[in-house]
Amino acid sequence: MKIVSACLAGIKCRWDGDSRPCQKVIDLVKEGKAIPVCPEQLGGLTTPRMPCEQKGNKVFAKDGKDVTDFFEKGAEEALKIANLAGCKEAILKSKSPSCGSGWVVDGTFSGKLVEGDGVLAKLLKKNKIKVLTEKEI
After folding, report:
1. Where are the domains of the chain?
2. What is the model's pLDDT at position 4?
3. 43 within 8 A of 77, measured Cβ to Cβ
4. Which of 20, 42, 102, 109 could form a disulfide with 77 if both were Cys (CB 3.0 to 4.6 A apart)?
5. Is the separation of the CB atoms in 37 and 6 below 8 Å?
């Protein structure tokens, strides 16, 4: 069993109220091999919401509001789901401040990428869950 970013499963939960469907992820969910999660929603953020980016160990909305607590709470809830389902692997949305693995946007809202992991990706890796992005499957 895997957990996957809900937006990759075609669920309209992204900050802009849209999704980023990935057919391989959709197929895994349809086959009962993956559970879609949206850590931002699990953390209490609305959809749509202001775009957010990581800057250091914090996450900020474009208006400057510190939303780190929402991202951390959502990551913890997603980890609970992963553990309850016995997930050993995750497929997460690349570049996201929650789900990005290896590269995330840099906090300037300019689209520039920096090396790093999103809040959920970092937590899953720390808990020995393998993290891939949709670009790696």
Report:
1. 2-50+66-92+119-136
2. 98
3. yes
4. 42
5. yes
Q: How many CA atoms lie within 13 A of 107 on its CB side?
A: 17
Which DSSP string corresponds to 16-69? TS-----HHHHHHHHTTSEEEE-HHHHTT--SS---EEEETTEEEETTS-B-HH
pLDDT tens for residues 16-57?
999 999 999 999 999 999 999 999 999 999 999 999 999 999
- Whole-angstrom distance, CA of residue 123 vs CA of residue 97: 12
Are 79 and 123 contacting, i.e. CB atoms less than 8 angstroms apart?
yes
What percent of the chain has a predicted confidence (pLDDT) above 70?
Answer: 100
CA distance 4 to 10: 11
The answer, yes or no, to whether the previous bond of 39 is cis (omega within 30 of 0) is no
Pairwise CA distance, residues 68 & 61, whole Å: 9
Question: Per the structure block, which two tokens stand in for 105?
Answer: 């946007």
